[in-house]
Design goal:
The structure is a single chain. About 30% of the residues lie in helices and about 25% in strands. The protein is α/β, with parallel strands linked by helices. It has 2 domains: about 5-170 and about 340-350, 3-Layer(aba) Sandwich (Rossmann fold), CATH 3.40.50; about 175-335, Dihydrodipicolinate Reductase, domain 2 (2-Layer Sandwich), CATH 3.30.360. The chain has a 7-stranded parallel β-sheet with strand order 6-5-4-7-8-10-9, sandwiched between helices. Strands 12-13-11-14-17-16-15 form a 7-stranded mixed β-sheet. α1 (about 40-50) packs across α10, α5 runs parallel beside α10 and α6 runs parallel beside α8. The longest helix has 15 residues, at about 175-190. The two termini are about 25 Å apart. The model is unreliable at about 1-10 (pLDDT under 50).
């Protein structure tokens, strides 16, 4: 926890650390806990909340590194909080939590914090799928199936109104974030007959504790590695969201991810067989109208790159019609740790607590 509390200035409070970094937030700001702050997603969420003017970062906890300071584990973020152990029974005066645990480990904690009156953003897959049978097919037994109906899928561009009132927000997976945003205008217009998704992501997507050959530096350097062939768990998440948008079943979707020699960043390339012929002018107008008021979606006029969105909450989308094949091609780029995970969680918190959606993210 921070070491001293300075007095208010112009309605703001500054929390100072011994190392000179500080958090400035409005007086009476909602207080937020980050659980699982020792992983890539949790540490970034803590950093974004530490610098956020509208939230007070109340505490960080971890399932490892307990007793160390977060700025010792992640010096780049300079968040001067000690990493504690989470005890839901001892939580007081905290309004919300970001849970950065793996699937199955997250749900019991979400339930315990919900019982303490907290609103929760869950970064795991535990509440992303509405149907229990689908979850258990892909992930195994669900620890808290009784809470599924309380969760809202946390893709703000699709479910903003429901997020406003939600007690549990299921933060989307990174691949579904980029894919569903890229395909949503086509799904709403009833234009998807079939789709193949080719996705590429930096190795940070494998997580901090991954110790398999596939993430070893000597194996990933200057390489492209397909993984989870014919069975990636994000597939049903995409199918459910696109089906909801289309009002009819979309799927099965052919989805194939790859690890590439990047730290962070993600590009999905979608190849769509449309239900009818779509001219380039109609396609461009469809995407422009779908996202013209969205603060973090940029519809661009040429293929985007991952460097353009690194360390941001933006998603850049380009759609093209192939006159030769009759197919449509959509590229969607995000930062997998930001819009794909942690900054999207903060975007959801902004919505939940009635704050400007872009606050703390620009």
């Amino acid at each position: 926890m921070a070491d001293t509390l300075a007095g208010a200035t112009h309605g703001a409070v500054a929390v100072m650390s011994k190392r000179g970094s500080e958090q400035r937030f409005e007086k009476d700001s909602p207080r937020v806990l980050v659980a699982g702050a020792t992983g890539f997603a949790g540490s970034l969420a803590a950093y974004l909340l530490w610098r956020h003017p509208g939230f007070e970062l109340a505490a960080v906890t971890g399932r490892s590194e307990v007793g160390r300071r977060l700025d010792d584990v992640y010096p780049r973020y300079r968040v001067p909080f000690p990493i504690g152990e989470l005890d839901p029974g001892r939580i007081e005066a905290i309004d919300a939590a970001v849970i950065a645990y793996p699937h199955a480990a997250a749900a019991p904690t979400v339930g315990a914090l919900l019982e303490r009156g907290l609103r929760v953003i869950d970064l795991s897959a535990d509440f992303r799928l509405s149907q229990l049978a689908v979850y258990e097919h892909w992930y195994g037994e669900h620890p808290r199936p009784d809470l599924l109906e309380e969760a809202v899928y946390g893709l703000p561009e699709l479910h903003r109104e429901q997020i406003t009132r939600a007690a549990i927000v299921a933060n989307p997976g990174c691949y579904p974030t980029a894919t569903v945003l890229g395909l949503a205008p086509l799904a709403r217009a009833g234009l998807i007959a079939d789709v193949v998704i080719d996705a590429k992501q930096g190795i940070s997507g494998a997580g901090r504790t991954a110790e398999t050959e596939i993430t070893h530096l000597s194996y990933t350097g200057e390489n492209i590695i397909p993984y989870k062939v014919a069975g990636h768990r994000h597939t049903p998440e995409m199918e459910e969201q696109l089906t909801h948008l289309a009002g009819r079943e979309i799927g099965p979707i052919q989805f194939q991810p790859h690890l590439v020699s990047l730290d962070q960043g993600e590009m999905v390339s979608c190849y769509i067989t449309p239900t009818r012929d779509v001219a380039a002018q109609e396609l461009a107008a469809l995407y422009e109208s779908a996202y013209e008021t969205e603060p973090f979606i940029e519809v661009v006029h040429g293929p985007p790159t991952v460097r353009e969105v690194r360390d941001t909450n933006f998603c850049r989308i380009f759609a093209a019609a192939d006159a030769h094949t009759g197919k449509l091609i959509v590229f969607s780029s995000i930062d997998n740790l930001w819009k794909g995970t942690s900054s999207q969680a903060v975007q959801n918190l902004n919505i939940m607590f009635g704050k400007p959606e872009a606050e703390g993210l620009l």
